[in-house]
Write a structure and sequence with these properties.
Blueprint: H1 2-8, H2 12-19, H3 27-39, H4 46-53, E1 58-64, H5 69-84, E2 88-94, H6 99-111, E3 116-120, H7 124-130, E4 138-142, E5 152-155, H8 157-170, E6 177-180, H9 186-202, E7 210-211, H10 216-227, E8 234-237, H11 240-252, E9 262-264, E10 281-283, H12 286-302, E11 312-315, E12 318-320
Parallel strand pairs: 1-2, 1-3, 3-4, 4-5, 5-11, 6-7, 6-8, 8-9
Antiparallel strand pairs: 10-12
Length: 330
């Protein structure tokens, strides 16, 4: 820093103010200091800064190894929001969403001196593990369901299911069948709840729920069963990959979509608009989830001891109408 100050013709304190983005530095002076830093290839010593401030300016993220669109997009949304706010990110991934692996991931992040932790939490074991983080460590869970007394940011999955189901009923379908995700995931259960509540409210028959994994293979298997029943005219799928399997099953069975069967997904994957036909689906704003999670964590970090941030931040989904739904024939 002294070398930068000498080259720029300013004081050591002025260089420090420029580095820390202090507003009380003239634009001309700031540019001269930045030019000197570039000339000398100066880089901040983050380790020294951490020792001086006891803040690493690094956030920890607990994720898990998956190709699922939702959790993967949550991770990207959180990382993007953190980078935009000037934070470094340390990611600890787990293969198993049970208590011990998640707790070990939290411990690794704590050992790296992160200022706070955001965990992608599609299952209750993740938030349970977060409650065992060291006292004073700010933690926020993203996804899953509301956890009493624990800061959570989530999409309103039940509301998204209501949007999809109501849309199909409004088109004139007598009822809507549902192909669910794994019911030990709170997100899948919330979508079942929203679907069922909407059918009850409309006085429609509530068909049995069929559940499986979050993939096209599960959708294809359940889709073949549904395609064999001529009374099935509308299917709401727990995600877009399941819907893809249902679409193939309907095509192979000779059931035309949307003329004979309407299909709706959930997630709004980038490829969903290119399915055949383009898929009507429920959009989740993962970038907004990331921004809200970061804002909640930073608020948590800035609160005095004994105070707590809001414990539940909900992001509303929206329906994306496309060509996979229609008024039923006859």
């Amino acid at each position: 820093m002294r070398d930068v100050a000498k080259l720029a013709g300013v004081s050591h304190q002025t260089v420090s103010r420029v580095i820390n983005e202090h507003p009380n530095v003239r634009a001309e002076t700031r540019e001269r200091v930045l030019a000197a830093m570039r000339s000398l290839n100066y880089r901040r010593n983050l380790a020294a800064r951490t020792l001086a401030t006891r803040e690493s300016h690094t956030l920890g993220i607990v994720g898990f190894e998956t190709t699922l669109f939702g959790p993967e997009s949550m991770l990207y949304g959180i990382e993007s929001a953190a980078r935009a706010a000037g934070y470094l990110v340390s990611v600890a991934t787990v293969r198993d969403l049970s208590h011990r692996p998640v707790l070990e991931a939290v411990d690794r992040l704590v050992q790296h001196g992160v200022d706070g932790i955001i965990a992608i939490a599609p299952k209750p074991a993740v938030t349970t593990a977060l409650t065992h983080a060291p006292a004073g460590m700010a933690c926020v869970a993203v996804g899953g369901d509301r956890q009493a007394g624990f800061p959570t940011v989530r999409v309103d999955n039940a509301a998204g299911a209501r949007l999809a189901t109501r849309h199909l009923l409004d088109l004139g379908h007598p009822t809507v069948h549902h192909v669910a995700g794994p019911l030990d995931w709170p997100e899948a259960q919330a979508r079942v709840d929203g679907w069922r509540e909407t059918l009850y409210a409309a006085g429609a028959v509530v068909p049995p729920v069929t559940a499986g994994w979050w993939d096209a293979a599960a959708g294809y298997e359940q889709g073949r069963r549904l395609a064999a029943d001529p009374a099935v005219t509308a299917v709401f799928c727990a995600n877009d990959r399941i819907a893809l399997g249902v679409l193939r099953a309907m095509h192979e069975s000779g059931r035309k979509v949307p003329e004979q069967v309407s299909v709706v997904g959930f997630d709004d994957m980038p490829d969903s608009g290119y399915f055949l036909p383009p898929l009507t689906t429920v959009h989740q704003d993962f970038a907004e989830l990331g921004r809200r999670a970061l804002a909640l964590l930073l608020r948590h970090l800035g609160l005095p001891d004994g105070e707590a941030p809001p414990d539940d931040v909900v992001v509303a989904p929206r329906l994306i109408p496309r060509a996979s739904v229609a008024t039923p024939l006859g």
